[in-house]
Amino acid sequence: MASLGNNPLVRFGIITDIHFSSESELAAAQAVAVELRASLNCWRHKKVDFLLQLGDLIKGSDAHKHEELRQISSILKPFDLPIRHVIGNHCLALPRQELMAALGLQTPFYTFTAKEFRFIVLDGMDLSVLRKPETEEERQILAWFYAHPEVHDYCGAVGTLQKAWLQGELQKAEHTGEKVIIVCHFPLLPETTDQKHGLLWNHREIAELVSSSPAVRACISGHYHYGGYALYNSIHFVVLPAFVNRSEHPRFTCGTVELQSERMVVRNQLDEKLYDLPFRH
């Protein structure tokens, strides 16, 4: 998609925290399916380059998690454009490998490019109560969590190997002159969430790492169901509201993001501007 005047270089659909449930009444589940299919048709009509799904695709109930994944997968399958998935904490009610296979992920954290932008997708559940730590640093992080249970066992951290990978990807982008968009299910700044929902365990370290790179322009997250925004070190940290709570914040159910060389525009399902954010130079 070429840039011309105010036309974007990249346009993509975005949605987070669907929490698809098959244990609710059949009529309610069917209504969600109808709404999601309408959103997919809208994105197709807008000719987006891809869809970014920010995590917590399913509710993850013990009795219905496999059926939830089957049903939501059947809704998304007809969408004939790429879907970039992010692993959320509710998704990991299913075994990680089973989830990744269903989402078509080769690795839980990854990068991809679109025009002059590099997207770096993080796995915020890389280190959590669900996984055994692999390094001394990770053992210390997990020990810190157990000493501070108020940070929540449904959140997690970026592990040692992923952090090294992230540093390498940022260096590549700096070398090639690409603009970086960081993507993580969990918020990276306390200002963009609340105590109930929480955020990435090692958010301070990761926020400092990404904001110290001159390549990074924005960070996009979900998890906090009511959305938030903060500007930190000239980087835009955007947390988008949850689809599952759409009746409580009708201004954003899902939306579209437009990237130009100099700015990022986030629009809601009605094509209204939610954010118009100029990039740092």
Describe the secondary structure blueprint for this structure.
Layout: E1 10-15, H1 26-45, E2 50-53, H2 65-76, E3 83-85, H3 96-103, E4 110-114, E5 117-121, H4 136-147, H5 160-176, E6 179-184, H6 203-211, E7 216-221, E8 228-232, E9 235-239, E10 255-259, E11 263-268, E12 273-278
Parallel strand pairs: 1-2, 2-3, 5-6, 6-7, 7-9
Antiparallel strand pairs: 1-10, 4-5, 8-9, 10-11, 11-12
Task: Describe this protein's structure.
The chain is an alpha/beta fold and 281 residues long. It has a single domain (10-278), classed as Metallo-dependent phosphatases (Purple Acid Phosphatase, chain A, domain 2, 4-Layer Sandwich), CATH 3.60.21. 28% of the residues lie in helices and 22% in strands. It has helices spanning 26-45, 65-76, 96-103, 136-147, 160-176, 203-211; strands at residues 10-15, 50-53, 83-85, 110-114, 117-121, 179-184, 216-221, 228-232, 235-239, 255-259, 263-268, 273-278. The chain has a 6-stranded mixed beta sheet, with no helix packed on it. The longest helix is centred in the N-terminal third of the chain and has 20 residues, at 26-45. The protein is globular and about 50 Å long. The two termini are 23 Å apart. The relative contact order is 0.15.
Key descriptive features of the protein:
single chain, alpha/beta, Purple Acid Phosphatase, chain A, domain 2, six-stranded mixed sheet, 6 helices, 12 strands, disordered N terminus
Describe what is shown at a glance.
By secondary structure, this protein is an alpha/beta fold. It has helices at 26-45, 65-76, 96-103, 136-147, 160-176, 203-211; strands at 10-15, 50-53, 83-85, 110-114, 117-121, 179-184, 216-221, 228-232, 235-239, 255-259, 263-268, 273-278. The chain has one domain: 4-Layer Sandwich (Purple Acid Phosphatase, chain A, domain 2).
